[in-house]
Each structure stands twice: as structure tokens, then as C-alpha cells.
Amino acid sequence: MLRLFFALVGLMAFAAPAAAQTPEPKPIVIGQSFALPSTIYGGTREMNVWLPPGYEQSGQTYPVLYLLDGGQAQDFHHISGIAQLGTIVGTTRDVIVVGVASVDRRNELALPTENTELIARYPTQGQSVRFRQFLADEVLPFVEARYRTNGETALMGESLAGLFVVETFLKEPQMFDSYVAVSPSLWWDGGRLARQAGAHLRDHSNDPRTLVLTIGDEGGEMQEAMDVLVGNLRDFAMPGVSWTYEPRPTESHATIYHGAALDAFRRLYALPAPE
Q: Is residue 174 part of a domain?
């Protein structure tokens, strides 16, 4: 028994230093999160910012991608990861990613409807104008005042956020330089926005801007409304507008975002050709 006692004491003495050396976890910080005061919403709103590596020391100015559904529990980590990948491997320019979180998506991202069924199902819907004012009057000025931006801006969103992107492009095209709409929910309100696109396009200036459209193998009202929008774009000659429509028939609504966002980064933030 005495021999067993000393053996156990020896094991404990050997294990103690190892236990003492167990590393403590440290948080991984990939960005900055703000509770942005909003007069428009009467409270604070979540906004997240990813800065390119070396931002603090570079002294450079950067383009800004504004990401809808950009909360930490939404698409911020996904899209900022794509930006980081492009920077690390040198395939895209450095860009600041600003994620604007959604709280009530149908309230903030959908335009008003008179469809009684939609109103009954989503009674808070249809306040996209208010959310656009929040972006224009509170989010953009905050970012431009706090960070070194170069004036180049883009707006990206998927699904209902894609609907908001298209509506903003049609109704307030001067707000951003580029627009990326992935599988936009143009079916909303029976495709009314797509049908009215021609009337909005008539009022567009020839200021340079870019529109990137894509959709998965979704069919039905989604595809029908997209076809109407694309038809209207083809009917109006807008010298300043560079727009692309690339369907992704091998992707679903649930799988399309990653590849589409990666391609959008490569399109919008392509590195200049070597001289």
C-alpha cells in the first residue's frame, strides 16, 4: 500500500505542471461592432465593420461594401471572410465591409404592398423607404466620417435584401456606385417592382454605375419577375450603366450566395492589370 501511495503522489506531481500549462482561450477579433444611435428608428442599430489587414498603418483610402442582413448572426462573417480571402491571396482589392443588421426583414427590406394576404401574413411589412433613409442619413455619414473611404460604394444583398438592392438601384440609383442582388425576391407583391422597372429606368441619368444580378434554379414567380426586370433593362439604353445577369441553374436559393458573392467581389474589386 505504501508503494502505491508514493506512486500516486509521483503521478500527481508529474501531472500538476502539465495542468498549469493548459492555455487559456483568447477571443478572435475580426472586426468592430457598433450600437449605432438612430433617430430614424428611435434606438440603436447593430452595425459591424471589417477593415482590411494593415488598415491602421497604410494611410490609404478604401472602397466600401455595404452589406444588408449584415448582423453577426446574419451574413457579416460570411461576406467579410470573402473580403479577407481576396486580400490574403491577392485576388481582389482591399475593401471595407460594413454589415448593417436587419431586425424585421419584411418591414425594412420590402416595399409596400396592397396584397391583403401579404399584409395579413406580414403586418409590419413595407417600410423600405424608411430603411433607405436610415442608410443614407445615418449609416453612410457615420462610416465616411470615421473611416478612410475613397468614395466608391456598393450595396449587396440576397433574397429580400436583394429585392431592396434592386429597388434602391431603380429608385435611388445615385446612392451607391454598384449594386449586387443575389436571388432577389422580386416575386413580392406579384412582381410589381419588376413590372415598373421601365418607368424608373426612364428617369435614370447616365452616371456610371454597376448592377450585378443572379438567380438560382428557383423557377415560378421568382424567375418570371427576374425575366421581366431583365427585359426592361435590355429595352433601355443607359450608356453609363454596366449590368450583368448570370443565372446559376445548379444552385438553389439556399446555396447560391457564396459563389455569387465571391464572383461579385472579383468583378467589382478586380486588381488593376499590371503595366
A: yes
